[in-house]
Amino acid sequence: MSLLTTLNEDIKTAMKAKDKATLDVLRLLKASVQNEQIAKGEDLTADEELSVLAREMKQRRDSVTEYKAAGRDDLVEGVEAGMVVVEKYLPKQLDEAEVRQIVEEAIKATGATSAKEFGKVMGAVMPKTKGKADGALVNSIVKELLK
Hints:
Elements: H1 3-17, H2 20-40, H3 46-69, H4 73-87, H5 96-110, H6 118-129, H7 135-146
């Protein structure tokens, strides 16, 4: 079942349950997927759908960080609730130990020895962690291990 089909079914469910907060997030997700489809001119692959969801999650993480820095705890709650909804559509997230293991394997495979080869390692790691780990976490682990 495609992501759009799943989102449409969940939108119907949220409408019947009168769950406005979930409904708003689902509609935003659906709009993002549809906009990506329109831009591409054809249906999205599962990988591309995952990219859209990862981008949506990243936007919400960034918003939470900014709202907390600005002292807007009232807005943080709403965005975090939206993150819970988006997480349902993402694959299981990798923990730090799993990401560290993937990075170590990539460093061995690429033969990287210094921070100058950061891009080479990230290029090897990101396809394996796409949608499964936060890019900032991957970035920090790569930097740490290349020191």
